[in-house]
Design a protein that fits this description.
about 80 residues, mainly alpha, about 0% strand
C-alpha cells in the first residue's frame, strides 16, 4: 500500500468514526433505547439514521464521505 492509499484509508476510517459519534449523539438525544442500540450495535444505528434523516442526516452524509475516501484508497 502506497502513502496515498494509506492516507485515504486513514482519513476514511477517521471520518467513519466521526459519523458514528455524530449518530450516537443524535440517537441518544432522540431516545435512550436508540442511544444504547447505537452504542452496542453500530450497523443498526445507520438504519436508525436512514429512518430519521431530519435528525441524523448530517451523520449519514459524513459516513458517505468516509466510504468515498475508503473507495478511493482501493483504486
Amino acid at each position: 500500500m502506497d502513502a496515498g492509499s494509506a492516507t485515504f484509508m486513514t482519513f476514511g476510517a477517521a471520518t467513519l468514526l466521526v459519523s458514528w459519534v455524530l449518530l450516537l449523539i443524535a440517537s441518544w438525544k432522540e431516545d435512550y433505547s436508540w442511544g444504547l442500540c447505537t452504542l452496542f450495535l453500530p450497523p443498526l444505528s445507520y438504519l436508525y439514521g436512514l429512518t430519521r434523516l431530519d435528525k441524523a442526516g448530517e451523520a449519514l452524509l459524513v459516513a458517505v464521505v468516509g466510504w468515498m475516501f475508503i473507495f478511493l484508497a482501493t483504486l
